[in-house]
Amino acid sequence: MASSSGGGGSSKSTVADQISQSVQSTSNLLHLMLETSPSHSLLSKLPKKLLSKTSTIKNTELVLEQMPQVISALDAHVESGLQSLPHLDTVVQLLSNMQNCQLKSLSKIQLIQQESGPPQQDSKVG
């Protein structure tokens, strides 16, 4: 039994060593990149550029936090619009009827004018 707990401690130690080596390797690689990169000046300016974007990042965070509420409100408005769709159909039908009545009136006036001939003009020349 003692050997199994010892084995467990050994595997934990091995994992910890591997993590430590990975962190050290990554750190070394980053240092190497900074020292040998032709864009060293750009890499060193990166933290400052990120800091200058902090307000934009915070504003984006606020917008993203409010997004569910906005979507919910929009959904409620769409639902309300769908509820009033029958009323909209009635309004469209009324407007169509009004347009048809106006067109009938205009066509009657045109027929009367055509039957009576061209409009008479004064033949008096001064």
From TrEMBL:
The keyword Membrane applies. Pfam families: BORCS7. Residues 1-20 are annotated as: Disordered. Keywords: Lysosome, Membrane. It comes from the Eukaryota. GO terms for cellular component: lysosomal membrane. Its main location: membrane. Residues 1-10 have a biased composition (Gly residues). It is found in: Lysosome membrane. InterPro entries: BORCS7. Coiled coil: none annotated. The keyword tRNA processing does not apply. Belongs to the BORCS7 family. This is BLOC-1-related complex subunit 7.
